[in-house]
């Protein structure tokens, strides 16, 4: 029995809210009665699906409905950001059953951090009484660029002491699970695709705001990979004249225009927030960033102006992204998005209303992701589920 056919059948059952009968599966797949029957038997034996009821039909025997058993398998998602370590446990239906955040102080040198990540993953599993063998694997999202094939992060910015770290291998050893490493922005795009039901007609760009900035591209329902799986390194996109000086020597690069550490630094310099600020203290940076957003929301004009300026610069980069890709929408999200999202969207809508080249042809929707600050960890877990469930990957992880 081909693993591909099995994955196709499981995928159909998973996507149908009410479940499917064997007769419906035969109709939807074109597979023979015998093949569908064998696959259903196998999926029942593996515990992945259950017989959840009977549907009466006008003629013939009542049909047994097959539905997925969400509690039969789980996936762990982890997000490594310089200022936040997030963990989620997803069930087979993609529902978050448990989540965990470690304080920024937990991010230290690579070896120590990997140990802490492995411990947090064990806790995530044990605190929910999840049988260890039901966990398919661990997805981990980290700042790019990454060496995808080697599963390594390469000099992630703001992670002190991290040069080239083979995160996939070390975390695999520490946890005993298969580990998938991907970029934070790509993971976030995976999560967004999952909540949209992985539809094959999705075309959008995802703009990711965390400690830094990145992007991912979804075309025809797939996250575009590029030649080294590093699509979306937009930190040095130009946002127009002037602006802050970037580490690369130019001014007005997107990264330095929207990064929380730069915005709170400017806030202190402009007297909006009280100094002194230790920019290496990422907890302080995060707290200050939230304070800046709250001040703007409360009507502080200087705070509002500073965020307006940042959003305006973001709009310049988004214009280029939209014009290059001809997507239906740009989705914004990531851990730094929720506090300033509504404000940025207002500026983005106004700035881009008549600016996009394809504006006469079709609408380009600008919207904030509904997934909140845990989106990246959720996406990392979705990558594991994709490997397990998608017909493309053959569903071999379920054997
Ligand atoms: Zn730059």
UniProtKB/TrEMBL annotation:
PROSITE patterns: ROK
InterPro entries noted in UniProt: ATPase_NBD, ROK, ROK_cs, WH-like_DNA-bd_sf, WH_DNA-bd_sf
GO terms assigned for molecular function: kinase activity
Keywords on record: Kinase, Transferase
Transferase recorded as keyword: yes
Family stated for the protein in its record: Belongs to the ROK (NagC/XylR) family.
PANTHER family per UniProt: BIFUNCTIONAL UDP-N-ACETYLGLUCOSAMINE 2-EPIMERASE_N-ACETYLMANNOSAMINE KINASE (PTHR18964:SF149), ROK (REPRESSOR, ORF, KINASE) FAMILY (PTHR18964)
Protein name: NBD/HSP70 family sugar kinase
Organism annotation: Pseudarthrobacter enclensis
């Amino acid at each position: 029995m081909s693993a591909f056919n099995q994955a196709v059948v499981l995928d159909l059952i998973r996507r149908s809210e009410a479940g499917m009968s064997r007769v419906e599966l035969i109709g939807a797949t074109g597979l023979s009665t015998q093949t569908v029957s064998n696959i259903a038997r196998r999926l029942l034996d593996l515990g992945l699906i259950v017989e959840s009821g009977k549907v009466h039909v006008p003629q013939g025997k009542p049909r047994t409905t097959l539905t997925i058993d969400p509690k039969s398998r789980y996936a762990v998602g982890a997000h490594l950001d310089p200022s936040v370590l997030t963990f989620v446990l997803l069930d087979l239906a993609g529902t978050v059953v448990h989540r965990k955040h470690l304080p920024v102080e937990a991010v230290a040198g690579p070896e120590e951090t990997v140990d802490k990540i492995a411990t947090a993953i064990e806790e995530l599993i044990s605190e929910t009484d999840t049988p260890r063998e039901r966990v398919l694997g661990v997805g981990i999202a980290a700042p790019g660029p990454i060496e995808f094939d080697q599963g390594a992060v390469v000099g992630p910015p703001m992670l002190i002491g991290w040069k080239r770290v083979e995160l996939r291998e070390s975390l695999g050893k520490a946890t005993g699970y298969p580990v998938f490493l991907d970029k934070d922005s790509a993971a976030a795009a995976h999560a967004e695709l999952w909540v949209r039901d992985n539809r094959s007609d999705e075309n959008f760009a995802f703009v990711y705001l965390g400690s830094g900035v990145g992007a991912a591209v979804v075309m025809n329902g797939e996250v575009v990979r590029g030649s080294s799986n590093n699509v979306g390194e937009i930190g040095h996109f130009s946002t127009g004249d002037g602006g802050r000086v970037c580490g690369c020597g130019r001014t007005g690069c997107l990264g330095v225009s929207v990064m929380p550490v730069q915005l709170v630094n400017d806030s202190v310099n402009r007297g909006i927030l009280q100094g002194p600020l230790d920019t290496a203290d990422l907890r302080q940076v995060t707290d200050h960033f939230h304070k800046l957003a709250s001040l703007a929301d409360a009507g502080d004009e200087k705070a509002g102006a500073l965020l307006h300026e940042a959003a305006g610069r973001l709009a310049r980069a988004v214009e280029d992204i939209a014009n290059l890709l001809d997507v239906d929408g740009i989705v914004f999200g990531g851990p730094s998005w929720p506090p300033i999202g509504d404000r940025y969207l207002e500026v983005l809508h106004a700035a881009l209303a008549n600016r996009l080249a394809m504006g006469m042809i079709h609408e380009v929707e600008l919207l904030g992701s509904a997934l909140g600050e845990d989106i990246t960890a959720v996406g990392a877990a979705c990558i594991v589920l994709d490997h397990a469930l998608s017909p493309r990957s053959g569903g071999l992880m379920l054997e």
